[in-house]
Amino acid sequence: MNERDANPVGPSSDAERTALELALPADLPPEVLELAKTNPQVRDAVRIVAEQYRGPIPHPRTLKEFDQIVPGSARDLIDDFKAWGALNRTLLERQANGELQQDAADRSLAFRGQVIAVILVVFFGIPGIVRIFQGDTVGGALLLAPALLGGLARLFIAGRSSLGAQESADSSTDAQGQTPKKP
C-alpha cells in the first residue's frame, strides 16, 4: 500500500499533487515530474506502459473487462476454448488412428505382394529356367514371363504404397493444427 492509498484526504506532497494533475504515477522521481510538467513529449513517454501477453485466450484483465461489459462472456470464451481444444484432440486422435490403419493396410498389401511373387517364381520362374536349359526356349520364356510380369507388378504396387505414405506424411499437421513447413 503506497502513501496515496494510505491518505484518503488527498496527495500529501507537492510531487504527488503534480503527478495527479498530470495523470502520471505518483512514485516518479521529482526531476522526471519537473521534466514532464514542462515537456509534453516527456509526459507522454512516461504515460506509455508496455505489456505483452501471449496465450490462446485473452489476458485475464481483458476477460474481466469483457465480463463487466457483457456478464458471463468470459466464461463463454473459456468454455469455447475448452470445446475447441477437445475437438482438436479428437480430430488428431482420429487422424492418428486412420494413419495407423493405413500403415497396417499397406503392410498387409506388401506382404501379399511378396507371397504372390514367391508363388510366381516357384511355379513359373523355376520351371521356365529349367525348360530354357533343356533347350525349349519358347516354352521356358512362356513360363518365365508370368514370374517376371508378377515381379514388375509387385514393384509397381510397392511403389504406389510408398508414394501414398509420402503423400500422407506431406499432408500431416502438428499438434497446433499447423502444416509443417518443408526445409
How would you briefly describe this protein structure?
The chain has helices at 3-6, 14-21, 30-38, 40-47, 60-69, 73-133, 137-170. It is mainly α and 183 residues long. Among the domains are: 3-50, no CATH class; 100-170.
Question: What does this entry look like structurally?
Answer:
It is rod-shaped, with a radius of gyration of 38 Å. The longest helix has 61 residues, at 73-133. By secondary structure, the protein is mostly helical. Among the domains are: 3-50, no CATH class; 100-170. Residues 1-10 have low confidence and may be disordered. The chain is 73% helix and 0% strand. It contains 7 helices and no strands.
What fraction of the residues are assigned to beta strands by DSSP? Answer: under 5%
Extract low-pLDDT stretches: 1-10
Mean pLDDT: 74
Structure class: mainly alpha
Total count of strands? 0
Shape: rod-shaped
Number of helices: 7
What share of residues is helical? over 70%
Q: What's the N-to-C terminus distance?
A: 54 Å
The secondary-structure element order is: HHHHHHH
Our Rg estimate from Cα atoms comes to 38 Å
The largest pleated sheet is described as:
none
Descriptive key words:
183 residues, mainly alpha, 7 helices, disordered N terminus
Task: Give the arrangement of secondary structure elements.
Blueprint: H1 3-6, H2 14-21, H3 30-38, H4 40-47, H5 60-69, H6 73-133, H7 137-170
Helix pairs in contact: 3-4, 5-6, 6-7
